[in-house]
Amino acid sequence: MSETKQPLKPGEKILFTVAGVFIVFAIVAFIIMQVVMATSDKPMFETKTHANLSEEGQLGSRLFRERGCTTCHRALRNGTNMGRTADLDGIGSRRSLDWLYAFLTDPVKNYGAPTIDHAPGQRSAAYVAEMPEEELHAIATFLSELISDQGSSSAAIPPKGDSPFIDTMVNTWAPEEWKEKYKDIRDDPEALRRANEKANRELLQP
To answer: CA–CA separation, 172 vs 154, rounded Å?
Structure first.
């Protein structure tokens, strides 16, 4: 004996209608975004990193793509987001050439702990340490020339001028004693200079 299907209740009809409208809206918005991205020369987000590649850096950029580094990492808007340190744009402001080269040649020793994918025996990127030294040095040079601009997420010092988001968060959540104890280094050229010098000293450390 077949069961008679119950008609949808008014609330269920409204729920399905709203869900359907939302799905259609999402599809249309996605299509519009793809069309805009494909036809516009202006990037969707402001680029806050740069790279002035030397001759060896250009070789390293090519090797970075040809040797499969873009399978897990991204640099100069090429690659994916699968690695633990996926986005390498700006890494030259955090790590020195010597550190990068040492990591590529002996990841575990230089990192000081087992890595997720570069350690010997790992299936994904263990092959990197076995590449010729000149290729590893070229890749390290390329990475060291990926520099952060002030204010980027990988930069050592905050953005120039006002930052509405930071200011709002500080004014909303920071205790009053913090505001008296700590200075905003954006308004203090000497503090900015010291922060920059400290970042440079740390960068040169292995």
So the answer is: 25
